[in-house]
TrEMBL record:
Pfam family, one: Ank_2
Species this protein is from: Rhodopirellula bahusiensis
Keyword presence, Repeat: yes
Biased composition (Basic and acidic residues): 35-51
Protein name, per record: Uncharacterized protein
Length: 227
């Protein structure tokens, strides 16, 4: 029987990457849950630290501060990367955790660190020869995740390490430039364009970075993309 229902339209904004919810499920040790692709309205735009990590007395969150049930060393490793706890990452790697290990969605700890712009952590992973363009089960790379927010330093680091600037994800064919443009991240947009990103590249619905910037009211980004 043919399904005539219209396809749900998705946009390349930070909240639609579902990183937050799927990480919460994965790190908390729950199994048997399928990841749900969220719309921008389903998940508030906020840093993962607000969700997972209470602040330590000195104001710095570490992987030891987060009470999690029965977590494996690999879960703790990804958690440490996600909150920017480089010392915790190194400690767990020294205890035998594989630096390229992935969660149930095939995300590496480096991708999680890139999502919140933890540049020193990403730099360490690159020094350990973690694949810069590793794709998770959604076809997304660390550069795509980093491009969703004000993470210019992390984006530059990944580009300098050879990250492919025009790869697209496997679900919607969103590129790093589309993510950055949709979020109005001008500095990231500039870096991606300077690295050769194609502003005319279209997703599966024929929309470009210009369309996403325009629909979200980022007029200065639109002007830059049209130059």
């Amino acid at each position: 029987m043919q399904n005539n229902l219209p396809r749900t339209r998705r946009v390349p904004v930070r909240s639609s990457t579902i990183l937050g919810l799927s990480i919460l499920v994965s790190i908390a040790g729950y199994t048997g849950c399928e990841s749900k692709r969220l719309s921008p309205e389903d998940f508030p735009r906020r840093e993962r630290e607000d969700v997972l990590a209470p602040q330590a007395p000195d104001g710095m969150a570490t992987s030891e501060d987060v009470p999690l049930p029965e977590t494996s060393p690999e879960d703790k490793f990804r958690q440490a990367a996600m909150i920017g706890d480089l010392a915790g990452v190194k400690r767990l790697a020294g205890q035998g955790v594989e630096v390229s290990s992935t969660d149930d969605n095939q995300r590496t700890a480096m991708q999680m660190a890139a999502f919140d712009g933890h540049t020193p952590v990403v730099e360490w992973f690159l020094s350990q020869e973690v694949e810069v363009d590793h794709r998770d089960s959604f076809g997304r790379t660390a550069l795509m995740y980093a491009s969703t927010a004000d993470n210019a330093e992390t984006v530059k680091l990944l580009l300098d390490a050879g990250a492919a600037v025009d790869l697209v994800d496997s679900e919607e064919h969103f590129s790093p430039l589309m993510f950055a443009a949709a979020e109005g991240q001008m500095e990231v947009v500039e870096l991606l364009l300077d690295a050769g990103a194609d502003p005319t590249k279209a997703d599966i619905d024929g929309e470009t970075a210009i369309d996403f910037a325009s629909s979200n009211g980022h007029t200065e980004v639109v002007k830059r993309l049209k130059q």
